[in-house]
From TrEMBL, chain A:
SMART domains: AAA
GO biological process: putrescine transport
Organism whose genome encodes this protein: Mesorhizobium alhagi CCNWXJ12-2
Protein name: ABC transporter ATP-binding protein
Coiled coil feature spans: none
From TrEMBL, chain B:
PANTHER family associated with the record: PUTRESCINE TRANSPORT SYSTEM PERMEASE PROTEIN POTI
One GO process term, biological-process aspect: transmembrane transport
UniProt-annotated location(s): Cell membrane
Keywords (A to Z) from UniProt: Cell membrane, Membrane, Transmembrane, Transmembrane helix, Transport
GO cellular component, one term: plasma membrane
InterPro entries on file: Bact_Polyamine_Transport, MetI-like, MetI-like_sf
Protein name as annotated: ABC transporter permease
ABC transmembrane type-1 domain sequence ranges: 63-250
Membrane topology qualifier: Multi-pass membrane protein
Domain of life: Bacteria
The family this protein is said to belong to: Belongs to the binding-protein-dependent transport system permease family. CysTW subfamily.
Organism: Mesorhizobium alhagi CCNWXJ12-2
TM region(s), chain numbering: 12-32, 62-85, 97-122, 134-156, 187-212, 232-250
Length: 361, 263
């Protein structure tokens, strides 16, 4: 982000209020050209409002939007080179697939030959070859979604905005479309700004995820960052399943943070910050990062525990493990072969200190 | 439902159908009677009444005049009604309900009251009785129907369609003409046909606001005063056929288009 030449959009300290409520509160971020950026958060977090501000459908109360070096804050949607794929696709029902795709090209004043070429190219690109003369009501959900994508890509926008475009598809199709969408983004090299409340979708497709909550950015990073190194309790809980461990900081040891968790010493990592000794902190430990050992391992930091609850989930078993005294409960996954070797529900757990993230808030 | 109630229901239904159609059948039949007097017995059949009305300058003139009024009224009503619907539909403002009620009032005012008030009003406007006055009167009466039908359709247009058009480079006018108007098409056809029929059928306003040239209903009324004759039946039958065809066509094309746009 340090290189400004690569920045395609700069949202400059933008606030959008509806009445007294700030839907987006002093948002400041830059999006690089060619990035697949996802705004992720629960409903009402301000992600859709941000997208609509980028598209020109909402005027920010404060701040600016700089698109490719030009201030577009006050420009209406038809005068900015940005296109959107709508949640309900918003295909024009009285036009054929071809006419829908050509709509934006016609308004750009392209010649008939150019429009035909570009439409044909997009139809091939999105495997819609035989559908040019169909109307939207003759298409399946997945096909409509592709037509909406083709229509938005047709005018060659600097930014493609996608407002939960997979929400209307069934679960099976959604997984397939996620892969397709990511592939299309790579092949076109376009900057995609995607909005979703589905964390799995965000993790699968994005180069970068911006987690929003109550109009503010909770965390901005790669999917791996967010998943393995969450900075806040909100992010840790919103994305995936995790163990939240509350304790007192006892100090540093070999670069790890030593935490007293209900009388047990545990080691973790603080990413980008240093919690004060004696302070109360919360740390996040992903279920799959908890290693379970049927026998006492050589790792001297391993903790003995007892399984108090098992849930068979096919490829693995989800277990609740009590370590030490009251309240010190860990959730973990057990491999099938380990599950068979554990006797009397006794086992040892350990983890890489890097995987226990001490949260900032 | 038991067998008996089912039979009873169908008997009542068919009785109603008979009640509805007997007068029409009688009217049509009498138009083919070879006699000057309406009534039974019928001794001979003829098409003379029809050839007479199609050769009569008076009838053809009145028909053309009525059609011209109906078409102008329809066009005007569609433009004004759509404008009101587009204005009242999406915007929320103080007193919207009052504005809406005022716009709808001409539809519920009794025809005779509306006709008399319009007759006085055109004097104020220094407008002579005749075609322009009739068109004015019919338009005021028809606009609320257009506005209501168009508003109902407009309420189902997803906001995202307009936004998508804007997003792809359309200004407000282009978005309206290329996305909103085509979406309204079934409503416009339905409302348009309804306007045609209302105007074509109107007697009271045309009578009060007309001058020497009568519209078709006014002509029929004038002819009635000089006695019933099968000629009137023939004229009425022609009108019946035309309006029925128009109504069925409108219903079918609206249904077909609604099906196509329910995405």
């Amino acid at each position: 982000m340090s290189n400004d030449a690569q920045t395609i959009v700069h949202i400059d300290n933008m606030t959008k209020r509806f009445g007294n409520v700030a839907a987006v509160d002093h948002l400041d971020l830059k999006i690089r050209a060619g990035e697949f950026v996802t705004f992720l958060g629960p409903s009402g977090c301000g992600k859709t409002t941000t997208l609509r501000v980028l598209g020109g459908f909402e005027m920010p109360t404060e701040g600016r939007v700089i698109l490719d070096g030009a201030d577009v804050t006050r420009l209406p949607p038809n005068r900015r080179n940005v296109n959107m794929v709508f949640q309900d696709y918003a295909l024009f029902p009285h036009m054929t697939v071809g006419q829908n795709i050509a709509f934006g090209l016609e308004l750009k004043g392209k010649t008939k030959a150019d429009i035909d070429d570009r439409t044909g190219e997009l139809l091939d690109f999105l495997q819609l070859g035989g559908f040019r003369d169909r109307t939207p009501d003759q298409l399946s959900g997945g096909q409509r979604q592709r037509v909406a994508l083709a229509r938005a890509l047709a005018p060659d926008p600097k930014l493609l905005l996608l407002d939960e475009p997979l929400g209307a598809l069934d679960a099976k199709l959604r997984g397939q479309v996620q892969v397709e969408l990511k592939d299309i983004q790579k092949r076109t090299g376009k900057t995609f700004v995607f909005v979703t409340h589905d964390q799995e979708e965000a993790l699968t497709m994005s180069d970068r995820i911006i987690v929003m909550n109550r109009g503010k950015v909770e965390q901005d990073g790669t999917p791996e960052d967010l998943y393995f190194r969450p900075q806040s309790r909100f992010v840790a809980e919103f994305i995936g399943d995790t163990n939240l461990i509350g304790g007192t900081v006892r100090g540093m040891e070999n670069g790890s943070v030593l935490i007293d968790w209900n009388g047990i010493d545990v080691r973790g990592a603080a990413h980008g910050h240093r919690p004060a000794d004696g302070s109360e902190v919360t740390a996040s430990l992903r279920l799959e990062n908890v290693l379970c050992h049927p026998q006492k391992p050589s790792d001297k930091n391993a903790i003995e525990g007892r399984i108090v609850n098992r849930l068979f989930k096919g490829s693995r078993t989800s277990v609740d493990i009590r370590v030490g005294g009251e309240g010190a409960l860990l959730k973990a996954y057990l491999d099938p072969e380990d599950a068979g070797r554990i006797q009397d529900d006794r086992l040892w757990v350990s983890w890489d200190a890097l995987h226990l993230s001490v949260l900032q808030a | 439902m038991t067998r008996n109630t089912r039979i009873l229901m169908s008997v009542i239904y068919w009785a109603f159908v008979v009640y509805l159609f007997v007068p029409l059948v009688l009217m049509v039949t009498m138009g083919f009677k070879d006699s000057k007097f309406i009534g039974f017995p019928i001794r001979g059949w003829t098409l003379d009444w029809y050839s007479e009305i199609f050769r009569s300058d008076e009838v053809l003139g009145a028909f053309g005049y009525t059609m011209a009024i109906a078409l102008s009224t329809t066009l005007l009503s569609l433009v004004i009604g759509t404008w009101i619907a587009a204005f009242l539909g999406p915007h929320k403002f103080r007193g919207k309900l009052i504005v809406f009620a005022l716009a709808c009032m001409p539809a519920v005012i009794p025809g005779i009251i509306s006709a008399i008030s319009l007759r006085i009003y055109i004097q104020f406007l220094q407008l002579d009785t005749g075609m322009a006055a009739i068109i004015l009167g019919h338009t005021i009466h028809n606009v609320p129907f257009v506005a209501l039908v168009v508003m109902a359709r407009l309420a189902t247009l997803p906001q995202s369609h307009i936004e998508a058009a804007r997003d792809l480079g359309a200004d407000q006018f282009v978005a309206f003409s290329r996305v909103t108007l085509p979406y309204l098409k079934p409503a416009l056809i339905g409302a348009g046909v309804f306007c045609m029929l209302l105007s074509f059928d109107d007697f009271v306003r045309s009578f009060f606001l007309g001058s020497y040239q009568p519209t078709l209903p006014v002509l029929i009324f004038a002819k009635l005063r000089s006695g019933m004759s099968p000629e009137i039946n023939a004229i009425s039958t022609v009108v019946l056929v035309i309006t029925a065809i128009l109504g069925i066509w409108a219903e079918r094309s609206m249904r077909r288009m609604n099906k196509g746009t329910s995405v």
